[in-house]
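Notes from the 1:1 (GR / supervisor)

We went over the backlog. Supervisor wanted to see one worked example end to end before approving the batch request, so GR pasted a single chain during the call. The sequence is below; no edits were made to it. Supervisor asked that the structure be written out right there so they could see what the output format looks like.
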Amino acid sequence: MSERRPVTTAEVATLLIETVCVSGDSETQALAELADALAVSAELLISEMLFLRAFTVEFALTLTLAEGHGREQVEAHYGQHWERIDHESGEQVVPALEEHLQFYGEIVGEGQASALGLATSVGVAFAQRCGAGDTQELVLLGGRMFGALLEEVSALLTEAEITMVSDS
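Structure output shown during the call:
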């Protein structure tokens, strides 16, 4: 068994925001090519992927960290990152983020998620948000990305020894 690595709540929040917002050039190019092949907006597909990653990170945070174990501080730091992004971009990022979080949260909370499987339900919702109905390629992309990222972020949060930062 590996030793848990101590990290502060601010470091965890920074890792989470980077997980959401930093995509490689190859990912962006692959999404643009897929959008072209499926006749959907590349900008919309790339944007929706960012919001799906944001939902997945927040979902993993809620599932993995119990109340009081640094979760509130991680959420506060994470929220501050989004506020900064919103301010620096000059766009209404936070309201769009909140709308997407609510949308995906409702999908996860609905009974259809259990009937179809969580990842498939999220994948179907992702494809619909991209304006592609239930195009199988986008259902698979959204569902698999959700499942893999959920597992990865949950493992990161489980393996980290999160230390609280005092307000001194």
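Supervisor's comment: The beta strands are 5-8, 160-163.
Batch request approved.
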